[in-house]
Structures are given as C-alpha cells and as structure tokens.
Write a structure and sequence with these properties.
Protein name: DUF3899 domain-containing protein
Mean pLDDT: 85
Keywords: Membrane, Transmembrane, Transmembrane helix
Number of domains: 1
Distance between the termini: 31 Å
C-alpha cells in the first residue's frame, strides 16, 4: 500500500513539474496549462489502461485489413485497470480545480 501511494505521488509530482515547467518556459497562464495538461494526461492514461473499447477494436481491424484477412468483430468486455498513472493524472486535475478556486 505504501509503495502504491509513493508511485501515485511520484506520478503527480512529475506531471505537475512538467506542467509548471511548460508554463514558465513558454510564459503562459499557469491555470490554462494545468487544465489542458491534466486533461491530456487523463486522456492518455485512459487510453493506456483500457481495453475492449473502440480504439482497441480499431487497431485489430487495421491489423486484419493489413494482412489481407477479413475482420469479424467479437464481443470483448470493456476493462479498465486503474493504476498509479491514472490516479496521479486525476489528482493533477484535482490540483487544477483547487488552484482555480483559490
């Protein structure tokens, strides 16, 4: 449990560091950078942690078509593995919400 919390905090610190760095380097509004960066990180973590969605089926269809085969869609249950990257990204968005109201 301690290792999971440490990984989540590490991901959160790295994401916030990247977003603060982008904000200061390009001299743009910090809250705008936090919002768009947090949404980007949440979207990327969603794509990496989910399976059985339209993105996965699109990749399977492309692979079948590239090999000359016929793609027959199969039912695959949607699964999502919530890990440190997903939780850290959501917490990054929560940090944006807290900073935007203060």
């Amino acid at each position: 449990m301690v290792k999971l919390i440490a990984m989540i905090l590490f991901v959160l610190i790295v994401e916030l560091g990247i977003l603060f760095g982008i904000s200061f380097y390009f001299e743009v509004d910090l809250l705008s950078t936090l919002f768009f960066g947090a949404v980007f990180f949440v979207f990327i973590s969603y794509l990496m942690s989910s399976s059985g969605d339209m993105f996965t089926r699109g990749q399977e269809a492309a692979a079948f078509q590239a090999s000359g085969g016929r793609y027959i869609p199969k039912y695959e249950k949607f699964t999502m593995q919530i890990g440190p990257f997903m939780i850290g990204s959501v917490l990054c968005f929560v940090v944006y919400l807290v900073l935007s109201y203060f």
